[in-house]
Amino acid sequence: MIIVLKPHTSEENITRVENLVKNRGLDTHIVRGTEMTIIGCIGDTTLIDPRLFEVDSCVDKVMHVQEPYKLANRAFHPEDSVVDVSGVKIGAGHMAFIAGPCSVESFEQVLEVAKSIKASGANMLRGGAFKPRTSPYSFQGLGMEGLDILCAVKKEVGLPIVTELMSPQHLDVFNEKVDLIQIGARNMQNFDLLKQLGQIDRPILLKRGLNATYEEWVMSAEYIMAAGNENVILCERGIRTFETYTRNTLDLQSIPVLRKKTHLPVVIDPSHAGGKWWLVEPMAKAAVAAGADGLMIEVHNNPECALCDGAQSLKPDKYDTLLKQVKQIAEVVGKKV
Ligand code: PEP
Ligand code: MN
Predict the structure, then answer these.
(1) Which of 43, 52, 99, 290 could form a cystine bridge with 26, CB 3.0-4.6 A?
(2) Which atom of ligand 1 is nearest to the CA of 132?
(3) Which ligand is nearest to the CA of 131?
(4) If you measure from the C-alpha of residue 162 to the centroid of ligand 1, how many angstroms do you get, rounded to a whole number?
């Protein structure tokens, strides 16, 4: 349930109405917008009669929220959220252009890719240090050494870094060193991990599970937010369908759906969706045209020899051309680029 207060309600009255809600055993979440103030009521509101609040002279209207997610719900927060990743803003027109190799392979490799994507206009560097691989015999990532490489490249090139956290055991070191902590598709419903991410205030890039519905995905964001960290960015990376020609199927509909149902920024990863480098360009363009708040794209300086996901990685020159075109599209749809 949400309580919309009349414009210009005083702080004193906001607190008074908030206390009325708390006296009913509910928690509150206040959103102060430019136009209005909203009190989100969190807890079991099914037995509460909205008329209790509607009669208050400061209350404009009371609405029941159908969805099980509250903090992530646009009804609670009508304006787009802006997530700040070490000075790079995402959301409300600000675009995230995240690029880099699937896996960190060496300092020289990451440095070369980072320099080129930065020159092309990317504003964040990705690279996996801990890799979730289907086979235990595949390259598992360089682990802590990979994280140190990312930090060294960040120092040299100056782009914030994005990398995947797989285990709660690394939470503290990630919190200290990583600008945007990625939670991969396979861990989207690792609820213990999600709860722990709520204890820090580092921004989180929450990828959609391989077969997660929108509601399941947003509920995972809700876990992080309910535990105290509201800096969540959603990332669609393709879902499992009956089609086997492509690695996954990119769900472009997720962009307008999530932007309607939530206020969180939505980033698209066309690389893991299609699994083929030549699908990245058309899908990236379509995603931005459909309103995405950013793109995460795998770029490798030598894809033929990549230790992971070479087939879906763009070469730096292709990324350069793509980003120029994508920025034109972003401008047409009203983004700030
Ligand atoms: C990745 O981004 O490197 C990755 C493993 O992605 P996903 O979790 O979407 O498969
Ligand atoms: Mn990959």
Answers:
(1) 43
(2) 5
(3) 1
(4) 12
pLDDT at residue 61 tops 90: yes
pTM: 0.95
Nearest CA to ligand 1 atom 3: 102
The Cα 264–Cα 233 span in angstroms is: 6
Ligand 1 atom having least distance to the Cα of 102:
3
The pLDDT tens digits of the residues spanning 168-202 come to: 999 999 999 999 999 999 999 999 999 999 999 99
SS3 194: helix
Sign of CA dihedral 237, 129, 231, 330: negative
- What is the torsional sign of CA 160, 182, 112, 322? negative
Please state which of the ranges 43-57, 132-146, 244-258 shows the lowest mean pLDDT.
43-57
272 C-alpha to ligand 1 centroid (Å): 7
pLDDT score of 263: 98
Query: If you count DSSP H runs as helices and E runs as strands, how many of each does the chain have, helices first?
Result: 11, 14
Among the bound ligands, name the one nearest to the CA of residue 239: 1
Q: Does 330 have pLDDT greater than 90?
A: yes
Ligand number with the minimum distance to the CA of 307: 2
335 CA distance to ligand 2 middle (Å)? 27
Q: Which two tokens stand for residue 332?
A: 């047409």
Q: How far apart are CA 175 and CA 158, in angstroms?
A: 18
Q: From start to end of the chain, where are the E strands?
A: 2-5, 27-32, 37-42, 59-63, 83-85, 88-90, 96-100, 124-126, 161-164, 180-183, 204-207, 232-236, 266-268, 294-298
The closest residue, in CA terms, to atom 10 on ligand 1 is 185
Which of 261, 322, 272, 269 lies closest to 292 in space, CA to CA?
Answer: 269
